[in-house]
Input
Amino acid sequence: MVIAVVLVLIVVGSVLFHFLSPWWFSPLASNWNYIDDTTVLTFWICGAVFSALLLFVAYCLFRFRHTEGRKAAYEPENKRLEGWLTAITAGGVIAMLAPGLLVWAQFVQVPPAATDVEVIGQQWLWSFRLPGADGQLGAADNRLVSPDNTLGVSPTDPAGQDDVLIEGGELLIPVGRPVRFLLRSIDVLHNFYVPEFRAKMDMIPGSVTYFWVTPTQPGTYEILCAELCGVGHSYMRGVVTVVTEEDYQAWLSGQATFASLSL
Amino acid sequence: MTGISHDASASVPPAEIEDMALYHPRSWWTKYVFSQDAKVIAVQYAVTALSIGMVALVLSWLIRLQLGFPGLIEFIDVDRYYQIITMHGMIMVVYLLTALFLGGFGNYLIPLMVGARDMVFPYANMLSFWLYFVAVMLLVISFFVPGGPTGAGWTLYPPQAILSNTPGQQWGIMLMLVSLIIFIIGFTLGGLNYTVTVLQARARGMTLMRLPLTIWGIFVATVMALLAFPALFVAAVMMLFDKYLGTSFFMPTLVEMGEQLRYGGGSPILFQHLFWFFGHPEVYIVALPAFGIVSDLISTHARRNIFGYRMMVWAIVGIGVLSFVVWAHHMYVSGMNPYFGFFFATTTLIIAVPTAIKVYNWVLTLWRGDIHLNVPMLFALGFIVTFVNGGLSGLFLGNVVVDVPLSDTMFVVAHFHMVMGVAPILVIFGAIYHWYPKVTGRMLGDLLGKFHFWVTFVGAYLIFFPMHYLGLMGLPRRYFDTADIMIMPASAHTLNAFISIMAFIVGFAQITFVFNLVWSLRHGKPAGPNPWRATTLEWQTPQTPPAHGNWGDELPLVYRWAYDYSVPGAKQDFIPQNEPGTLTRGGTA
Output
């Protein structure tokens, strides 16, 4: 009988923990409240299923526990019941999947107005490259990486000359404007993750990956590496600060360009 | 209700082939060491797997020491930390769970439950174990070589797996890959054996739709493993080539600590596809035997036929097939083409439907049952709780957009420990309490068993349920040092310490289990041939423990399905599968 009581306690305890514990999503600072909403919806559906199933098991354990003279029912199949349960489950799955895929469609389609910010990962440092006055990033390749050109920016591409380089420093981005992060790696896999933005993506040497986000809350956020990248993995942190447009422009004009660094 | 599995009126077909000739041992060596008896091989597999599992348990304590009480033990430096998490993961997934379910339970139960004398290829079966043993030994050796074992994470993602800022570059990574290759060769020898035995060596009358669900689970898992492991095999070979022969299968142009390496043109993502093409079926290779076994535990101890047997079989087969088209849900944020997310999220959530059917049918088997809360039943109930919990958190991670914030965080760690760590291990414990009497002829101690259950079940839930919320907050996994993370309040560190303390308690409770296993060997209550009054063939052997060849002179004949419990009008509340008679027209008839 203890087990039936414990199952009820697990349900009650888990639900209470969910609502009362201080541990939850970090405060959102981007447009991806859709992700939070889908997550909360999933919590409600899964929480209801979990509670209902466990309470039913607890009821069965209490009601049908062995006592002298009890005999189990013999019922190999019940197609109607099985059919209904399958249909209800399919309904619940669709209720989670459909909004999920709709939000994913937004996630993979970058708004045309987004500005590019390149993030470059290497053991164990974050660097950034921003387009200069021409609005575009020049070509880059790991084959061009050298002590004088640590990010592998092409010296022959005119579009790259005015690119702003920030090696191992702080990144600023303007609030309210969509940003497309273009992600590169110099050495191994890394993952550009800012918990408050909700989004993350692996960075792969030899490829450029991306995601987009519109920061909505000014503030300073920590960049965490979320893909094991060797022994320094947990120390690979950076800082991104969301600021107003004026502050952003003021900061940007004070940064060094690729051309000025190569002189 | 004619034509269904539980109709016992059909007669047993005539014999088509001669009885199998057995290899009889001539010495102590060929009886207990290089044995060709599947039951001995099963025990060898189980003892080896549980022993290396104890190593993994100790490693998990070291992980929790670092996460809960960072800096307390100087021995755990950053290199060792990554070596520890890598070896813990690899041992648990491959060398404990896969080996124990298929090599251990598969070897013991397949011949007995299908009514065969032994596996059809006993010599290959013996080789299978000894290759597994060599693979385990290579892992153990890697702890003692210069540089230690690899610290690449159990997923072994290149490029870092073979580069110098990951520990274990001297010997560890090579031993790891070679060990996996040998494991896979050994498994293939065993797996072909299990498959052919189930298909070709069943007793007369044992139709496929009369097989106990344990056998269905192990059988489908074995077929899946035969199809999935080759992907890991080639990935391991290719990585060895990249490391030692200078090929670039997985290695693009890259610069390590300022130096251009000779690699170029390879794809790290290719490795991930190969790894997860193995890795996702692997989850079900562990889960399906657990599903099968738990079905039989619940049915036997609730004295009730398993509810919806045919649905259960088709759900196992359906999950097996679907699990080959969901692998990239491990890679939503890997940088693969993001449009794949639509496909893989859909297939992944579809797999929830057959899985849910299985859960409903377990629960409906309890409903209107005659529930005996024996130790195996308690573990089966613990499995339902942890599996439902872990299965549901899988719906978070499978739904691509919800996965984006949660991927690579402690939420994932909590999820997979709940669903493919705790849940199948509870089934393993339940199964050992259930079948130990057949293997040894003695019962395991009941009181110790209950103590073991309560501490393990409640403790494990308290470890892994709160852990999800650390991931929700954004704490990445595989962090050696979680100090000074801006999003982590002080209370989160307290939670980490609490989780660690629970982990120590649960770990220590396993000593009672080991003690019980050893002590009961001599002092356990004599079990008799069928202590649980079960229907399946392994409980109907002429000797307990069964002798070599299992059945004496006459192979059993099978007249009915495995779930004739509490049949109306029957003298007892169970009718063994080999008992003739027509008194089983099921259900409402």
Summary: The domain at 115-262 of chain A is CATH 2.60.40.420 (Immunoglobulin-like).
